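User: Once you have settled down, look closely at the record that follows, taking as long as you need, and be ready to discuss the fold:
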Amino acid sequence: MFFAIFLLFSRFNIMPIKIPDQLPALDILGDENIFVMSEYRAVNQDIRPMKVAILNLMPNKIETEVQILRMLSNTPLQINIELIRIHNETSKNTPKEHLDSFYRLFDEVKEEQYDGLIITGAPLALLDYSQVSFWPKICEVFDWAEKNVTSTMFSCWAAHAALYYHYGINRHLRTQKLSGLYSHSPNDSKEQLTRGFDESFNVPHSRYGYIDKDDYLSIPGVKILAESKQAGVYLAASANKQQVYLTGHPEYDTSTLHDEYLRDLNVLTSEAKMPENYYPNNNANVEPKNSWRSHGSLLFTNWLNYYVYQITPYQLDADNIKAINPE
């Protein structure tokens, strides 16, 4: 049995996302004043809910679920969420019962179509793509998404992997991880995906890989939408809105960079780099402040509205998706 999660938006009760009623994210988001309503009321509304899949490649899937669902919940659109995993291998960081209860394998859904798809990052930056155990399967996902999804958001590692697969653009690796909170600017005030962004906004980054700006500019039909002097290209998208490439982590919790830093200290000891521009006075003992949540929420809302809802077909099937993007 499922429940719909409702968010109080402005003065009205509106329905953003529907997720399984036992998913741990339900209680967490409920504590943040996101309301719960029964499936019965949801299905009796005279609308077609958008169908959005999350292909979660992160080891700690529960943490990632909460972060992304929080971003998706700030919208008046009704969204049915489907959690997907790429294989059924045992996870060290997520209980098997959780995966069996709430996730479907990609092979189980590849005959279906979705309005939107989010593919998360993965801690695989130091591996060549050919060394990634599920590389053939993720390539299959990339091909499938072009024909069966109105718009796909590729996050962090997935963004670099998709650019490599589709355009042959390989990412470079830093000797030391880029980690911290960096200032960014949108490039086009009329661009729908960045509509409402401040002239300067913060985004957390945590990655080794990067792609040169000139490489982005060499791709026909792909436009850089936002970038940072320190962190480089942050947001890019195809002209037909079917592919969005996101290299930062606007979904991160306030403490995520701190938790990663503590983890790196345990693994890398003296080589661990303190996140830049993150701790007050660069003191890791002082609790950081979240200055990116509003931007992250707006980014996901704009994507759902302008890149998905406004162009997705009412009758969701492969032929209609192809009609939107015939090439």
